[in-house]
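Incident log, structure service

09:12 report received: a user says their structure output differs between two submissions of the same chain.
09:20 pulled the input from the user's history:
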Amino acid sequence: NAIRSWAALKPKPHIIVFGPEEGLDKLAATVGAKHIPRVKLLDEKSRGVHSSRPVTPAPAMGSLFYQAMSIATTKSLVFINGDIMLPPVMGDLMMSVNNATDRFLLLSHRYRMWVREYIDFSNPMWYMDSFGKCDLPQANKSCTWTRDSSRAVDYFGFTRWTWNKIRLLEFAVGRPAYDNWLVSKAASIDTPIISATEVMRALHQNHNYKHITSAATSNEKHITGKDYALFENPLADYNRRIIAFKEREGLMTVRGDQRFNTFKMRLARKDCRAT
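09:34 re-ran on a clean worker, output below:
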């Protein structure tokens, strides 16, 4: 559903799918996307990752960004997780922002829901279908889209000049902290941070988190991401440590949903609201 929603945007974007997972090449081919199977992965053998047990690999964020910018021929790009569907307005939104400024960071809250079927993206109003009453009586209360925490950001729109003054670190994608770090760093160099929450809804398809920890289940009460095990794992700790070390802010103890330096988060949120 996610990649098909991207391909349905107007104008149609050039899609690059990163990852070695089986079947990604065929999936990319169905929408005319470019597949890059070789990406830098972080696991228990990576420098800075402390674990005596095998760790499910996660892509390294900095390498992904730089690799994408070297391949793409466009001024602006969007980094997006593979479970996020984008509504049609995203195409118009990116064009408007792209024409207005040469440097920006576009993001928004995400809305989450269980999606149990293929969506027909030929219907331009597909994203409105399940916002109201649940169509499936046997399904649970998660039948409608639910607005998630502002700390969970699953896509970023930016230009090649957004990160000119910033060295992008090798965070583990899909683990805590890297998304909030991007917002904070962009705000620190006065990059316009544009919140699209009131204009569009980025739609997260719920899933289990067994790729992060065996303690996670497919039980829907755990899907909000508040489960302790999702934030206390080797790659989550690794992300926090490189922030503490690189930023020299002394942040060594982080629990639950606290990501990193509170003061910087306040600055980022203030800038986002003002924009």
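09:41 both user submissions now match this output. Likely a transient worker issue. Closing.
09:42 reviewer note: The chain is about 30% helix and 15% strand. The radius of gyration is 18 Å.
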